[in-house]
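Subject: for your reference before the review

Hello V.,

The reviewers asked for a structural picture of the protein, and I figured it would be easier to keep everything in one thread rather than splitting it across files. Below is the amino acid sequence we used in the manuscript, unchanged from the supplementary table.
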Amino acid sequence: MDDRRDDDAMMTPERIKAMIEHGIAGAEAVVDGDDGVHFAASIVYDGFEGLNAVKRHQLVYKALGEHMGQAIHALSLQTYTREEWQRQQPRAAR
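And here is what came back from the structure prediction:
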């Protein structure tokens, strides 16, 4: 039995958050998902500055490595620089 495969089957939002933040030093991620295979993530990272959406997503996919498309079947991404994130927040939350 391949233990790594069993481990992959137990994907959680917390684990995805940790992989993103470990793989992209300085990034902050919020990940949601309750079925173990479909997730949504918002990632704030100043290194996204000047990158288009495709390049930003590629950075996240690289951080997740082989888990993308295997243990993680679907991942909706919202990527922001800190400044973009601040503009997204309601005034009361700033």
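For the response letter, the relevant points are probably these. The two ends are 50 Å apart (CA to CA). Residues 53-64 form the longest helix (12 residues).

Happy to draft the paragraph if you're swamped.

O.
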